């Protein structure tokens, strides 16, 4: 169990003021896997340094697993599933424990916020929001165990058929580093449906997963029901290949998602894929310009562009194009890029030096392909993986910066001449994750919502989410839905039971 005794007192870790509890969690030794309800080091003794993206400094270590650790976690999950310690609990009791976990997460979201800010460089105030998002998902799914009803389809008088909704077994969940505390978007529906879970967080952002798995034990989720194994893609691919895992949920890059889906096919595992995006934000001449500029810029600067739904292609009608670009530059002029813990920072660091180099290469590519770099902000601090916000104007939709996911604070503004062209450009992308539309013409808004090839369309808003609303992509952005009632379909299966009446 976690020692919560330190209350509100704080400690300095790598120059940042963090909750005592977060500091103790890191300094207690190598941050472990959680397998079968126990804190475990790696069987082969492997560990990985924890590096702070805001400073480049090492501040601790986490267990670095192998296929052997993964296998131990799958066995623990399988045993917990088979003996029914969770799925056979009374549904009202499952609900009570999931609510307790949501309570605990809300009570300790300052700790998880500190952990996500330290290992993933998530802006400290945004990190608490991510933990709250996870708590909201738990709260939403906590209501479901008593409501997982099946059906009795009509088949005539000779038989009665119960179509039962059952858990699937052991769920494998693989998560990326850009919102590490958001694990319950996938883990909560899996648990609510009665499954056991093996979670592999991203190797760069492991801390909050271990902490949250320990909170789950404290809330009464039985040992072995929610396991965490740390490691890189080797552990991820072992999870995908493992015959004891029945179903997968993957959030990450397109390349890894494609390879993962192919590998999963070998053992007939269905996969939920939440991949990247190159989402368009359409701004029509009748839009409220101030609202549109604020939303279109915020979505790209948010989490330094490291968000799947970032609206990185801004499509603006030519009649307001110059004014829009000027305004986008003006509102971005004074943004502060800096340490995730500095309250003045509006953009934090990128996750790794490699990610920074990748983003920089896209910026160079944008210039060499002929886009006009209208703005590059400044970075006043050193040591971390900092990229200033960049605005490109005169971007064509066939330029690489408009086609590939950059995952950094790079905005590309593309002109269009009429509504049909706007939809054609918006849909001319490998991706189909999300889209935004800014217009005060309700008929146009409705036409746009129907025309856009995306899993989510926001009209006069952007990146609003709620655990009750399902989320997912089209095309290379993946398949399957997370959140809301539709996600439960992904974590359950149907069984038809026929009984004879004669
Ligand atoms: P990114 O480029 O965002 O790091 P990835 O898609 O490579 O994206 O990583 C997302 C998650 O997938 C991480 O937890 C990572 O360790 C894991 N991963 C990487 N390669 C594989 C793989 N071959 N099989 C399964 N998981 C993998």
From TrEMBL:
InterPro entries: Ald_DH/histidinol_DH, Ald_DH_C, Ald_DH_CS_GLU, Ald_DH_N, Aldehyde_DH_dom. Gene3D superfamilies: Aldehyde Dehydrogenase, Chain A, domain 1, Aldehyde Dehydrogenase, Chain A, domain 2. GO terms for molecular function: oxidoreductase activity, acting on the aldehyde or oxo group of donors, NAD or NADP as acceptor. The keyword Oxidoreductase applies. The keyword Oxidoreductase applies. Belongs to the aldehyde dehydrogenase family. This is Aldehyde dehydrogenase family protein. The lineage of its organism: Bacteria, Bacillati, Actinomycetota, Actinomycetes, Micrococcales.
